[in-house]
Specification:
Layout (H helix, E strand, L loop, with lengths): L8 E3 L5 E3 L8 H23 L1 H13 L3 H12 L11 H17 L5 E3 L1 H15 L3 E4 L4 E5 L5 H9 L1 H4 L4 E5 L8 H9 L7 E6 L7 E4 L10 E6 L6 H12 L3 E5 L7 E7 L5 E10 L15 E2 L5 H11 L1
Parallel strand pairs: 5-6, 6-9, 9-10, 10-13
Antiparallel strand pairs: 1-2, 3-12, 4-5, 7-8, 7-12, 11-12
Length: 321
């Protein structure tokens, strides 16, 4: 008869004592850890293989290129002297700056570029400062005037927070002159206040068909104006133009006055990078509800009028409506 003890002494027939070392049972979590580690190792090696050429190029140029003065000039031209941290550390940002600059030369795409940390902070501050110029006032007992300097979260919230006051007037003058655009999501929510639920606001086309989509309103219309007069000029662009198209194509009481708009029907995404930088790239082609693009064309006004007396002109025009 043989008696066993887990990891302890064993007493046999001849009554000799011996020690039996038993293997601990491995947990399920440990097996998952091994599998996960193996998967990560394979992915890492695969990534290293795919990017091998780039890493060799990066090491060769950033660490061993002999003409460092020329290298310093290249980095300075691409990133600016105040943003340099080192050849190896800044190599990726330098490549992005050079590539995006070349894209602008080839395609005249002024919207794809690398933000330096200073430029990024200045852009955010400028957008906030511009947004704070939004305001609403009553011009007459029948007509309200809404000036929207850009399309963003601040202006969108201002319109939403003041919608009860704005809606009291039968006529609305929506001033989008010098509005260079902004965020498409904010444009969608502003347009939601004007058009009926499930109305088409526009289309966003991408390289991947999966991400191409039709944009529709999500809420019942809050505003119900007799007349909506939109003021526009050559500096009205991007999301502001998309707002004009959405209102024009969904409402029968919209009149545009001014001059032909800028003609920007592309959208960008901005991705933050390390060190405060950000990369911005054009990833969308945009059209209005009718599917036609106004990129590099602009939106012609229903009535051309560029004078300084445009508000007086509009009020006189409304009397005839």
């Amino acid at each position: 008869m043989l008696l066993k003890a887990q990891g302890g002494l064993v007493l046999g027939k001849n009554k000799y004592l011996s020690f039996v070392q038993t293997k601990p049972k491995k947990s399920r979590g440990y097996r998952f850890f091994k599998i996960g580690f193996f998967v990560l190792l394979v992915l890492h090696l695969g990534s290293l293989y795919i990017h091998w050429d780039y890493w060799i190029f990066r090491m060769l140029i950033s660490q061993h290129y002999i003409f460092t003065d020329d290298l310093d000039t290249l980095y300075s031209q691409a990133l600016g002297t105040e943003n340099l941290r080192g050849h190896f550390v800044d190599f990726d940002r330098m490549v992005m700056a050079v590539v995006t600059a070349r894209i602008r030369e080839i395609n005249n795409d002024r919207y794809t570029y690398l933000y330096s940390p200073t430029q990024r902070q200045a852009s955010i501050a400028r957008q906030r400062e511009t947004a704070q110029q939004v305001y609403f006032e009553a011009l007459t007992a029948e007509t309200g005037y809404l000036f929207v300097p850009n399309i963003g979260s601040y202006t969108r919230r201002f319109i939403a927070d003041n919608r009860a006051t704005i809606s009291q007037y039968p006529n609305l003058i929506l001033d989008l002159r010098y509005n260079s655009g902004g965020m498409l999501m904010d444009f969608h929510q502003i347009a939601d206040l004007f058009v009926e639920n499930n109305a088409i606001l526009g289309y966003e086309y991408t390289r991947l068909p999966f991400f191409t989509r039709q944009i529709r309103s999500n809420n019942p219309a809050y505003f119900n104006f007799d007349n909506v007069i939109i003021l526009q000029n050559q500096n009205t662009a991007s999301a502001a133009e998309s707002l004009i198209l959405a209102l024009q194509d969904n409402l029968d009481n919209v009149t545009t006055i001014g001059s032909t708009t800028f003609g920007k029907a592309v959208g960008q995404v901005t991705i933050p990078l390390t060190g405060g930088s950000a990369i911005r790239g054009t990833v969308l082609l945009i059209s209005g509800p009718n599917g036609e693009t106004i990129h590099n064309i602009g939106i012609a006004p229903n009535i051309e009028h560029d004078g300084d007396d445009i508000l007086t002109y509009v009020l006189n025009l409304l009397e005839d409506f």
